[in-house]
Amino acid sequence: MTLALKVSDVHKTFVLHNQNGIRLPVLAGASLSVAAGECVVLHGRSGSGKSTLLRTLYGNYLTDTGRIEVMHQGQWLDMTQASPRALVNVRRQTIGWVSQFLRVIPRISALEVVMQPMIEQGGERAEARRRAEHLLTRLNVPEHLWQLAPATFSGGEQQRVNIARGFIADYPVLLLDEPTASLDAANRAVVVELIHEAKARGAAIVGIFHDEDVREQVADRLYDIQSRADAWPVMQ
Ligand SMILES: Nc1ncnc2c1ncn2[C@@H]1O[C@H](COP(=O)(O)OP(=O)(O)OP(=O)(O)O)[C@@H](O)[C@H]1O
């Protein structure tokens, strides 16, 4: 078993500075390891901290304590101590993020939006284009939309463009934040296939899936988040 991600004793408290400095303790000693080719699904009641943990793994939130080590270009790198420059490099080469929301870039065509992560990794344009077209076809994004900027696309079309963008590059680690939310059954099935293919090539995946059916199809194991808010009252 080759580990790709090691999370040790991560604590995270939100401090609401504009609300009298109220402290919201959310993560209390989160610890998990994820191997290459494995999909771990975050599990817990609403508000238990699933999104917080996923965002923390991507370096979006600072931690109070703990380590988040990722195997990056042959070496372990602690994301909690990484410089902004290292973080950018990790996100370009090692950790992919797929959510249901597309950050729309004005005037850039859907095809270019999807190709971009692979080109940033140093991929050939022709190969990136071939893969992007293949993914957009699989995700049922009509061909007449490919040359248009996705700003005017429907919510579901934008979501599928974003999924194609998230799966085009072969990231060693993938973080999936409800990528199937509000997709129809046919497109949900495509995303499940993409996840199986990513696992088969050795991606280590951490995801949140509210759809139980999808969860059962992709999860190798569940990681139960023991919410700190269950144990601690909100403190000032
Ligand atoms: N940026 C933030 N600032 C302050 N509090 C936050 C922030 N993000 C999340 N929280 C709080 O942290 C707690 C956990 O939220 P989080 O979104 O991680 O839960 P979740 O398990 O993903 O919930 P759901 O299943 O409903 O999406 C909640 O009480 C939420 O209010």
TrEMBL record:
Instruction: Cite the SMART domains for this sequence.
Output: AAA
Family statement drawn from the similarity comment of this UniProt entry = Belongs to the ABC transporter superfamily.
Kindly provide the name given to this protein in its UniProt entry: Phosphonate C-P lyase system protein PhnL
One Pfam family of this protein, by short name?
A: ABC_tran
In what residue span(s) does the ABC transporter domain sit? 5-236
Which InterPro entries has this protein been placed in?
Answer: AAA+_ATPase, ABC_transporter-like_ATP-bd, ABC_transporter-like_CS, CP_lyase_PhnL, P-loop_NTPase
> Gene3D superfamilies this protein is in?
P-loop containing nucleotide triphosphate hydrolases
